[in-house]
Amino acid sequence: MIIGVPREIKDHEFRVGLVPAGARSLVAGGHQVVVEAGAGAGSGIGDEDYRAAGAEIMAGAAEVYGRAEMIVKVKEPLPPEYPYLRPGLIIFTYLHLAPLPELTNVLLTSGVTAIAYETVETAGGRLPLLAPMSQVAGRLAIQDGAHYLEKEQGGRGVLLAGVPGVAPGRVAILGSGTVAVNAAQMAVGLGAETAIIGRNLAKMAELDALFRGRPRTIAANPQHIEEQVIRADLVIGAVLSPGAAAPKLISRELIAKMQPGAVLVDVAIDQGGCAETSRPTSHSQPIFTVDGVIHYGVANMPGAVPRTSTLALTNATLPYVRRLADLGLPAALRQDPALARGLNVLAGELTNQPVAEAQGLPWREPALVSG
Prior knowledge:
The chain is of the alpha/beta class and 371 residues long.
């Protein structure tokens, strides 16, 4: 198979979908790897590193897409890339289609096969390709939130760690998954007063044992969410329903009740955000303010630390890339149910139920998976 690695073009996105070690592994397996010139530069990887691994460097994205049978990316295709999509091409990347009907339509009409990292899911409910970036995003959420709490940035002027004689800042984390756990680790490490609000009571018990009661774990219901959000200096939106639109847990009215200068970091923004006031932002313009509350909604947060993020992501994705390349699409999906759950679009048909429900579209399980 010919695997193509284009340069990412999303705002301030410096990650790359495949590192030289992965290219070397694929080439050793009898495959070809074509990489757009400069694709790895933002992660500190030069074209010469790819050449040394046996990859071919191509001048632009059009050449990479034109040659490749499978494109391995980090973020979803953007409008300048739409003309490169064609029937028979496999796209393997983060898609987060639920809040993106335009992209869904483009994928359906182009005839591509699209597999989303974020919906590859094991029988036990683990999300192996989302987890590494959720770890990064959870840790960054506290780091970025603490920054925007500074008065110079428009925040409340609160130091999350506090100092002797002065109470620490308050952090409320909505959700109990990977983002939440990593955000809690950072917040507790700083010394912030931290609460995790989640609906999975078994998971909450695990977290209570893991953290030995710090942070506090609180069962999610409208009253508890309101109480914790109102008193928080920093709110982290960390809810996730794989493939589906994020539930709106924070209303516009609740935002208005928050403390002036408080910060909301909505990590769920890839799936539409968990606050009614949230909207996607970029690393170039990361924040906006509603009713005195600073909203941070960067949809590619891990792109801020591309060296770490690229290595963490490609450690997880390479085995799946190899499986698709070695076996071909039908056999790979039949042999690996987790990978099959990642299939969102196949040759003009939507194959992911949560995306279909979010957009009011028909869907079906393809015969190549079930047959």
